[in-house]
């Protein structure tokens, strides 16, 4: 687990339909503004969250997102967690390859989201689901 | 379901995206624009994304598809008003928006379309038109 201290309550959003992806974006943006992330960092965080929320919906068959302000003692940040109980990811190397997709997208979601975040951790089990935890720190 | 309005300005279609672009809405815009280009015989499309605070890979792909479809229908697409933070994030995400022209704002976009049209009229109307057109655009 990424070592962080929670600074506030975790807010959760179910991801079951297209418009939930938009709700996740709004929730993450509100948290990023509250934590005073720079505009560029807010944009990177919200974009990454949008990719991960869509992945949760399209590949994971739905799940939830959790957003929480955190600190590592030196800096504040926002932690996002995306969890689903879908089929899991069989080949992680492949899943992180730019341009590789099984869902008809661009294959940039997972790799792009990892580039946009500062910390990125993925746990997956075939047949059981996937949990992604990622953090964006303030500069 | 909301729709993004499409305005007709002479032979140019102007789309200003003012709401958070949900996936379905982006797909509807793609269809509506193709219909409208065909019905109005417009030669240019300007998509203003000043109000969009993120462009993720889904929206990016939809915009690139819109540009490609327009091209087949003999209309050029110019994306205008991208925020600096969105541009930085897009590059880091790995999205190149191939085949889509960009301009800073609507005014510059209109001028670009006018210049493209003018250059096009000077080109001989033969089999090489596509290549000639491409080289004119890259100048």
TrEMBL record, chain A:
Which keywords annotate this record? Kinase, Transferase
Q: What is this protein called?
A: Serine/threonine-protein kinase RsbT
Enzyme Commission designation: 2.7.11.1
Which SMART domains would you find in this protein's record? Answer: HATPase_c
Matching Pfam families: HATPase_c (PF02518)
UniProt keyword annotation of Nucleotidyltransferase present: no
Which Gene3D superfamilies does the entry link to? Histidine kinase-like ATPase, C-terminal domain
From TrEMBL, chain B:
Q: Which InterPro entries match?
A: Bact_StressResp_Reg, STAS_dom, STAS_dom_sf
Locate the coiled-coil region(s) and give their ranges.
Answer: none
Q: Which PROSITE patterns match?
A: STAS
Which superkingdom is the protein from? Answer: Bacteria
Pfam families (UniProt xref): STAS (PF01740)
**Domain named STAS: residues:** 2-113
Matching PANTHER family, A to Z? RSBT ANTAGONIST PROTEIN RSBS, RSBT ANTAGONIST PROTEIN RSBS-RELATED
Question: What name has this protein been given in UniProt?
Answer: RsbT antagonist protein RsbS
Q: Which organism is it from?
A: Allocatelliglobosispora scoriae
Upper taxonomic lineage? Bacteria, Bacillati, Actinomycetota, Actinomycetes, Micromonosporales
